[in-house]
Design brief:
alpha+beta, 20% strand, 2 domains, three-stranded mixed sheet
């Protein structure tokens, strides 16, 4: 478990590994930790480890972003041509 406290944003990020999720002692430590920070008016975010392949997910995300950028560029070019034609 890793705990990142962002005092400037009043945010606590708790990062759990697969081992943390399976560890009963670790799970028992979480509710008191939540209450401790909630009493201090912090928002608590818990992140659980995933099972997906990060390489594939990252590749898909980058390809999607590239496609969106290209679509936006083409839309802007079309709008400029339309404005010039009018």
């Amino acid at each position: 478990m890793e705990v990142d406290v962002h005092a400037d944003q009043r945010l606590v990020c708790i990062w759990l590994t697969h081992a943390d999720e399976e560890n009963l002692a670790m799970q028992r430590r979480l509710p008191p930790l939540y209450r401790q920070y909630q009493k201090q008016k912090y928002k608590v975010a818990v992140f659980h480890a995933g099972n997906d392949d990060l390489t594939d997910l990252t590749r898909s995300l980058l390809l999607d972003n590239q496609n969106r950028l290209e679509a936006n560029r083409m839309r802007e070019e079309k709008a400029k041509r339309t404005m010039r034609a009018n």
